[in-house]
Write a structure and sequence with these properties.
The protein is mainly alpha-helical. The protein is 67% helix and 8% strand. A two-stranded antiparallel sheet has the order 1-2. A two-stranded antiparallel ribbon has the order 3-4. It is elongated and about 100 Å long. It starts with 19 loop residues before the first strand and ends with a helix.
């Protein structure tokens, strides 16, 4: 078998880079055919971060943020910080208008399934981890560690000469009290 140099391969021909165009209420919206690995990672992680409430993933929020992030990353629509300030309201607008479904309908189904699979795997891993003895021990250690550290600081701050002096004085008082009886 002959070897081929990586730099001699034309990778641009092997990926269909054509964006799809959605004509949505008079606006031409481009939907990318391929999302970079970094963007996919960001989509997954932001979806999970925003969907977590008290260390539990909210399935409704996972769906909401997953679909919003698909629109954010796969389309050429620019959303301002003001537009994103109320993402629940933005989701409602995009969902009611049919834009979310229109965007999702032109993205490769295998790509969407792959993204959803990774989200599900991370959720399952976290569920299993947070219910494991390893997590319980680690969490206990993390909570108790600062308390033990503080106790250690307090113990180091004790002036042993003053403690010994107080103990001597207390013993003397006790001895005098016993002697008087």
């Amino acid at each position: 078998m002959g070897l081929i140099n990586y730099k001699d391969i034309d990778f641009n021909k092997s990926i269909n880079k054509e964006n799809k165009i959605i004509n949505f209420n008079g606006s031409e919206i481009q939907v990318v055919n391929y999302l970079s690995s970094q963007d996919k990672y960001d989509l997954i992680m932001v979806t999970l971060q925003k969907s977590k409430e008290n260390n539990v993933y909210n399935p409704y929020l996972i769906d909401l943020y997953f679909k919003l992030n698909i629109v954010y990353l796969y389309t050429n629509i620019v959303f301002t910080a003001e537009d994103r300030a109320d993402e629940g309201g933005l989701y409602d607008t995009l969902k009611r208008s049919g834009l979310i479904d229109a965007v999702i309908s032109v993205i490769d189904k295998n790509e969407l399934l792959e993204l959803q699979k990774y989200i599900d795997e991370i959720i399952n891993f976290n569920h299993n981890y947070f219910n494991s003895i390893g997590f319980v021990v680690s969490d206990f250690t993390n909570q108790v560690g600062p308390i033990i550290s503080k106790i250690g600081s307090l113990v180091k701050a004790i002036d042993l000469e003053k403690v010994n002096s107080a103990m001597t004085m207390l013993n003397n008082k006790l001895s005098q009290g016993v002697a008087e009886e």
